[in-house]
């Protein structure tokens, strides 16, 4: 009875979010636990993958007490806790000044972490495990029983782990209402004559019957390409394997009716998009901005698209509205075709058998939207609802809307006050920034169903981590990726953020999309398109890829995992000036070129070049206050182990370092007690702290985000002590860093630097 009473008290003390997490994972969120652990995600979070490498590298090297303590901290720190600190960090964490009060707080934290244990686990060390009651296991079981009792009383049970790995919402009440097999077309709500329009892009794309020789041609032959210049998008590269399709030109203006949008969207789109049209000086039409017009022209042709100039501050929402319109238009047309054929099959004479009604895939999901945070999913659903509502009087029926707002919305009070960060940071990390989610959306005529089971959904909105935990890994018992078999539109938005999360999740998805399902899932094979039965779905899938930068890893996905028979379009504008023009301090920049035989050997070549030629120049005490910027976590671990082995006077900060250790490292570096500071790019991405005391900068590799280069360089002005004449900046690069180099110094300088094998010296005298 004592355990059960304790379970009830524990359940009452939990917040709504904590109860939700307990139902979903069977344990409390690690951010609220006394003992933090990152294993609750089944080792899918990127910190676990990184730390597996880190632990193997550190077993043989434990020479520094401080470094060892921070290594222990990394073991118990999680990537999700890193995200959680963005919204729950205390007010003192937002202050950039090294005031006396902050010094006192840091000293107190240091005394606590070093005085309580020599291992220095501080906030989440072994001592906390002793505070956990012995009956905690029984308490958890009782809490789950209490949750089950709540669910029996009508509480949502979709997140209960006993219902399966997938976040499926078993909504029996609305199952028949949203079933494509049992419903028929309502003439006033849809486009009954959609299948009669020969110029309909949807029909043209999906009804095209490829031959085996064409499939073999696309699989073996290289792609041909052509270039075009558009007014707003700039330089476009068209790639294709089959015969060259009709040249796509940018229309200066067009009528919405010419786009063959589904009936409701023709009237709702101009109203939904009105907010962006007001910012256009001279709109050529009253429905699209110039950027949206050209992007939608490509989308509506069902070509693959790569747009690497997405900006969260300027055009991010414009792009989101455009691809939501395209995805919803595709879903409505596909469902209208199925419902129309249902009526034809119902009215046909008994005994007649026809093969003309092949209008479905092997599974129902047609669109997969990959977004980084819950806030993005929230905005997408709001756009979809707005596009389906003709006016304020004709509201559509949205199932489970209240639950969706509770789980994907954010509390404004959670944001810490006085948090001074750049505008782009505020735009990216707005709202709910949880990155583990997935939700199915079913749309049928005048209704929308949120939290639909995946196999009853038309659109799936998910994060890479949310999809990865469903797909699972080879050998796992509970894994499922059949729902990806018939995806017709794949939208990857803000792809650059996945480089800061875990790019392996994106690659894992691309390997499991458009494969033949292992189970039939109740499909009527007489209605399945031949392209799906032939396992040719990937040749019909349209991929829309949006990013704020060009990166070799993103380019690789677009070039190697997209097989659209219509072809591909990539925007390839070259930067003319580069982010170095935004450096506002007088600083000499030395770009040192390293040679590598191949792209796979450049990692070892860079390390050897740094340790043999660069680091010896900075060992002297006169070159103190040296910050080493390291984009890759694996390079950071390798350098940290080398610095320990060489017994160098250094400290380090990475994305897994505890707050107290970060404070110590910043203070040691500012006062000159530590000569070197190893600093990771992902820590800067998630925190954007201003590091004071920098006199010498070394970019171990060019930053992923070009504006990080100017941000880091401008940190030197944070400490104005009259010694700016001694400031230095050294950058390591190779011929394989051409894209990153162009984003920093501009295309003209990049061409000169890649042709010459000598070091390049640039001197920036303020903002250009």
UniProtKB/TrEMBL annotation:
Keyword line: Developmental protein, Nucleus, Phosphoprotein
Localization of this protein: Nucleus, Nucleolus
BP GO terms, sorted: maturation of SSU-rRNA from tricistronic rRNA transcript (SSU-rRNA, 5.8S rRNA, LSU-rRNA)
Biased composition (Basic and acidic residues): 349-360
InterPro entries hit by this protein: P-loop_NTPase (IPR027417), UTP25 (IPR010678), UTP25_C (IPR053939), UTP25_NTPase-like (IPR053940)
All residue ranges annotated as the UTP25 NTP hydrolase-like domain in the record: 302-569
Gene3D superfamilies: P-loop containing nucleotide triphosphate hydrolases
Disordered: annotated segments: 86-143, 340-360
Comp. bias intervals (Acidic residues): 92-108, 120-139
Domain UTP25 C-terminal stretches: 579-763
GO molecular function: rRNA binding; U3 snoRNA binding
GO cellular component terms, A-Z: small-subunit processome
Biological role: Component of the ribosomal small subunit processome for the biogenesis of ribosomes, functions in pre-ribosomal RNA (pre-rRNA) processing. Essential for embryonic development in part through the regulation of p53 pathway. Controls the expansion growth of digestive organs and liver. Also involved in the sympathetic neuronal development. Mediates, with CAPN3, the proteasome-independent degradation of p53/TP53.
Assembly notes: Interacts with CAPN3; the interaction is required for CAPN3 translocation to the nucleolus.
Stated family: Belongs to the UTP25 family.
Listed name of the protein: U3 small nucleolar RNA-associated protein 25 homolog
